[in-house]
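1st attempt posting a full record on here, be nice pls
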Amino acid sequence: MKAKERLHALGQSLWLDNITRYLLTSGTLQRYIDELSVTCLTSNPARSPGGCRTRGPRASSIPGRTC
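the predicted structure (as tokens):
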């Protein structure tokens, strides 16, 4: 049994925390879904350039936001 299958058997999901434009447009994300069973995506705005400059109702809730 592959590692991804063992994880799913234990009720765990594979997450990807690295969303890029290339990942979305190149087909890489679809390959990750198909081959690695990635089921969840998230993005940490504090890790992206300009991320803490995000405006909107949730901008003030970004931990460590200093700009």
